[in-house]
Write a structure and sequence with these properties.
binds zinc ion; 156 residues; mainly beta; globular; 5-stranded antiparallel β-sheet
């Protein structure tokens, strides 16, 4: 190899690790995730400005007031932004590369004022647009996790 040349193959060093961990999602996310196990989606509403946060958060970003008023949110909403990925990234649930293409969208569910970031069933950019109506597709066996919603599909 000459000076400045780049190796064709990256060097790799095996480093097997068994890293199991648990983390606290916080009181707001804990209730939100428990609701998903019952196909219930809830947002936290600010008593000061009325803004309904989904995902829920402990404080209003505008008023700085603590939030504790839960309000129901629909499992359908509007696509506010989207992207179709053609490069694989590691799936956080499996540790394996996610099959491509896959869609990611910011979805504002009916009854919420903020968006959640989630997978989209549709991967054809010609069929995706801001303002598109979408609905949640639920996993058959719910476990109180964000992927209880498998993805959002175009509402017909
Ligand atoms: Zn507020």
């Amino acid at each position: 190899m000459t000076a400045g040349a780049i190796a064709a193959e990256p060097l790799g060093v095996a480093c097997p690790m068994d890293l199991g961990w648990r983390y606290a999602s916080g009181a707001a996310m804990e209730r939100f995730l428990a609701g998903l196990r019952e196909r219930r989606i809830e947002a936290l509403r600010c008593d000061g400005c009325g803004r309904r946060y989904l995902p829920p958060r402990p404080l209003c970003g505008d008023c700085r007031l603590p939030l504790d008023r839960w309000v129901p949110v629909a499992a359908a909403g509007t696509l506010e932004a989207w992207s179709v990925y053609r490069l694989p990234i590691l799936d956080g649930r499996t540790g394996e590369p996610r099959p491509t293409p896959y869609g990611i969208g910011l979805v504002r569910l009916d009854g919420a004022d903020t968006t959640i970031n989630h997978l989209l069933a549709e991967t054809d950019p010609g069929r995706l647009r801001i303002g598109l109506r979408v609905r949640a597709v639920w996993r058959e066996e719910l476990r109180g996790a964000l992927d209880d919603i498998l993805h959002f599909e175009v509402a017909r």
